[in-house]
Specification:
mainly alpha, two-stranded antiparallel ribbon, about 5% strand, about 850 residues, Nucleotidyltransferase, domain 5, 38 helices, extended, about 50% helix
């Protein structure tokens, strides 16, 4: 390697030296370039150099952008720098692969690093097209890619749901799930004796007799618990290489005859791999859209829509304990097979569980295929709509690759598990057995499920909580009725926006839901009714209970409440210095008699906690451990003990606080008890504004009225003491009004009337220094004070009112007739003018 590097350096130095002798750009180069022979030679040399650079970069696994002949020097420099960066990145990748591999084994370097071979087996035409893409205009390339994606999306649009096209039933009710299993294949008898039904981490065990054991939860519970892994699967075997996809036959199963033929094929093999494609956006419970099955010789794609009710016959090979079923990430696939077809799995090997046991850096199917099969899977159709029919060729290829390499990966994982530890393989089958025994259960609606499903950005009040709860329930009802997912009916962010804003009209509802979902537009009236009901709720602040907070945190992974004794002590914030607990090692007793035990039994007195309790220490020197040959420094120990005595631990602070709190609570209880004894057992009288003012005692605020300075006359107090208790209750004492101002005793209207009367009765003569005797108004006051005599209309003479009024004076007009006639004439003139303005024609010339 060193010789090759030295030769490369010498060759590069020679290349640079020779290139300096060539004509440089400028007047000389333009002169030489004017000759046809020189021009032709330079173009030929440039083409040869371009071909050499492309060949060199391709041999080391780099696709270089080769400039066109006659390009500028800057363009050549950019292409060379880009190729160098790619080479450095490829070298770093290779270095990481070599570093992770074992030193004693032969390292398998990926093919795309050493030979630059396309990982997805591209042809030469595809490579040339990709190279043209780099040199083409990026805008044109992006536009072409956009058109291709749009055409693909148009081909995969599902115009009608398969549930309606193929009459696929869906049970979205709240009733428990009923198994669709009609024929139970490979059934065995029940076990005799007692059966272990529970065994948790704490060691608690519960037992049940076989007579009372039922199969309500899982039809194959007895078979799975009885299952024993065949000896062939626990031994090392041959690692059979998979066939290329081009040479492997593919069978599309969409009829009953083909399904029966597939069942016969699966019953005749020893192992097969399985994978499912699922869709849950346009279905409440979900829908299995495709089943991929691969054997060592053939691949099968099962279209379940036309033969939905007949797929249950595959339960015979799937439940056969002598046939191995290989899955990758089977936790959901097994439940979907139970739910839709009544197919149950016995004898399972999950490659995901095996990768976990081997502690791989990644656990995806793409990494599994790349590591063992040296194939890079294209996962762009992982989230595609698999309900579309017919399937595109790219989707068919994606579905085949999911199961085609699983059996070869199973062989490789089995050998790695056996090589590392034979017990690991048994552990993998044990965990796979737990996956097989899981029964499918329908989701149960939780009225407060949004607490764990939605992440809130604000605190809910009573109205928002009512709206969110009602909308969450309405969404679930519509989703069950229409067989749609709740997210399709009303997404979470729109649900939260409606509950937060509480719109008052239809426009506000549409503004919160953009783009507008179909079912929101169809049921706008129901949503509007919920908004109006929420606005009528009393506005209060909603506080979550401790249980609701813990449930929300557990679902989001914030905390975990399942702890053992040691974990709870380690995570606890409480100080344990007040107890005899040894924080150094816990309360674990070590048995010295056991061989190979290096830990000696340690007494609590020798722990660090004993230092905090100096009263229990009998001999201070017995606690101190020093090196051999050194004396004990008692001064430092005394200084340390004094500092520890002065230090107050958090627990001591907590104890003092609790004692002080108990003391204050005891004082409050004694005070309440004393007041209760003083008041006696008399019933308390409640007053309202309907009661008469006499029945209520006047109460005044001492701070506002200065009641503490008010004193009753001594005579009044003596009279009240002489009165009987009944008389005192009838005439309660009242404070002297002279001690209070008018503002405190009179209302605003009374004060205003008093001020107006004061202005009228003001005596100006006092201000001017004059006598008030000459004032005629003052003279009349004595007459006004006389009592007014009552007038008797029955004895009065009414004849004066019956005579006609006669007065010859011209100004006499008792009823103001002249004024009325004058105003009437003015009114008539104004009416004529207004009529002329409205269009009345005046014919006078």
């Amino acid at each position: 390697m060193r010789k090759q590097v030295e030769e490369l350096i010498r060759t590069g130095a020679t290349l640079v030296r020779e290139s300096n002798g060539l004509p440089k750009s400028g007047a000389d180069y333009e002169l030489y370039n004017s000759y046809p022979t020189f021009n032709t030679f330079m173009k030929t040399s440039e083409e040869r150099l371009n071909a050499l650079m492309a060949k060199v970069t391709k041999s080391i696994g780099i696709v270089m952008r080769v400039p066109d002949v006659g390009s500028s020097v800057e363009h050549y420099t950019e292409c060379v720098i880009e190729a160098q960066d790619n080479i450095a990145e490829r070298v770093s990748t290779l270095h990481e692969v070599l570093k992770k591999a074992d030193k004693d084994e032969i390292v398998k370097v990926p093919e795309y690093i050493t030979k630059a071979a396309p990982t997805n087996r591209k042809t030469e035409s595809e490579i040339s097209a990709a190279m043209k893409t780099f040199s083409a205009n990026i805008g044109t390339v992006l536009a072409q890619k956009f058109r291709e994606r749009r055409e693909e999306a148009a081909e995969t649009i599902v115009h009608e749901k398969p549930q309606r096209t193929y009459n696929i039933p869906a049970d979205n009710s709240a009733a428990p799930f009923a198994s669709k299993l009609t024929v139970k294949h490979h059934a065995i008898k029940k076990r005799a004796g007692i059966v272990l039904i529970d065994d948790d981490e704490s060691g608690r065990k519960e037992w049940n007799r076989s007579e009372t054991e039922t199969e309500e939860e899982h039809p194959y519970m007895t078979e799975v618990l009885h299952f024993k892994v065949p000896e062939e699967q626990l031994k090392s075997g041959e690692t059979r290489k998979f066939k290329p996809l081009e040479k492997t036959p593919l069978t599309m199963v969409d009829t009953t005859e083909k399904l029966e033929a597939l069942k016969d094929v699966l019953n005749s093999v020893k192992e097969f791999s399985v994978d499912l494609e699922h869709h849950q956006v346009r279905s409440y419970l979900g829908l299995t859209c495709l089943i991929q099955i691969s054997t060592r010789e053939e691949d099968f794609l099962v279209d379940p829509f036309p033969i939905w009710d007949q797929i249950g016959m595959l339960n015979e090979p799937f439940a056969n304990p002598n046939i191995l079923k290989v899955f990758h990430g089977s936790d959901n696939d097994i439940l979907w097979l139970q739910r839709d077809f009544g197919v149950h799995v016995v004898n399972l090997f999950d490659t995901y569980v095996a990768m976990k046991k081997l502690k791989f850096p990644k656990f995806s199917l793409a990494y599994l295929a790349f590591r063992f099969a040296d194939v890079v899977l294209d996962k762009q159709y992982q989230l595609a709509d698999w309900r579309a029919r017919p399937l595109r060729s790219a989707m068919v290829m994606y579905a085949r690759e999911d199961t085609h390499y699983l059996l070869f990966a199973y062989d490789s994982l089995r050998e790695l598990l056996l090589k590392q530890d034979a017990k690991l393989l048994s552990d993998v089958y044990s965990e796979c057995r737990d996956l097989c025994i899981r029964p499918y259960k329908k989701p149960v609606f939780n009225p407060k499920g949004f607490m764990t499903e939605i992440k809130f950005r604000f605190t809910l009040n009573s109205r928002q909580d009512f709206a969110l709860t009602s909308l969450y329930r309405w969404r679930d009802v519509i989703a069950r009725t229409e067989d749609e997912s709740p997210q399709f009916v009303l997404p979470n962010h729109m649900l939260l926006a409606l509950a937060e804003t509480l719109p008052r009209d239809t426009g506000g509802i549409y503004a919160c839901c953009n783009p507008l979902p179909h079912f929101v537009k169809q049921h706008t009236g129901d949503i509007y009714k919920i908004m109006m009901e929420a606005r009528d709720v009393k506005l209060e602040k909603v506080e979550l209970t401790a249980r609701e907070k813990i449930n929300a945190q557990e679902v989001r992974g914030v905390m975990n409440e399942s702890m053992d004794q040691l974990t709870s002590i380690l995570n606890s914030k409480i100080d344990f210095s007040h107890i005899k607990f040894d924080e150094e090692r816990g309360e674990i007793d070590i048995d010295k008699s056991q061989v190979g035990n290096d830990i000696q039994q340690k007494d609590c007195q020798t722990s660090l906690l004993s230092v905090l309790e100096s009263s229990t220490v009998q001999n201070m020197e017995s606690m101190i451990i020093v090196e051999e040959g050194k004396n004990v420094d008692c001064k430092k120990i005394k200084k340390l003990l004094n500092e520890l005595n002065q230090f107050v631990t958090p627990y001591e602070c907590y104890t003092v606080m609790m004692k002080e709190k108990e003391r204050l609570e005891e004082i409050e209880r004694q005070e309440a008890k004393r007041k209760k004894l003083e008041e006696g057992d008399k019933p308390k009288t409640l007053f309202s504004h309907h009661d008469a003012a006499v029945n209520r005692k006047a109460e005044f605020d001492a701070k506002l009225l200065n009641v503490d300075t008010v004193k009753l006359n001594s005579n009044e107090t003596e009279e009240q003491q002489q009165k009987s208790p009944m008389e005192v209750d009838k005439d309660p004492p009242v404070f002297d009004p002279s001690r209070f101002s008018d503002d405190q005793l009179m209302s605003k209207k009374a004060m205003k009337r008093k001020r107006d009367a004061a202005r009228k009765n003001i005596d100006v003569s006092v201000v001017l220094g004059e006598s008030s005797s000459s004032d005629p108004k003052r003279a009349k006051t004595s007459e006004d004070k006389k009592e007014v005599e009552d007038f008797d209309y029955g004895t009065a003479d009414n004849s004066a009112f019956e005579k006609t009024v006669k007065n010859n004076e011209p100004d006499f007009d008792p009823f103001h007739q002249k004024y009325r006639v004058k105003n009437k004439s003015k009114k008539n003139m104004s009416m004529k003018k207004s009529s002329n303005r409205q269009g009345t024609i005046n014919y006078k010339k």
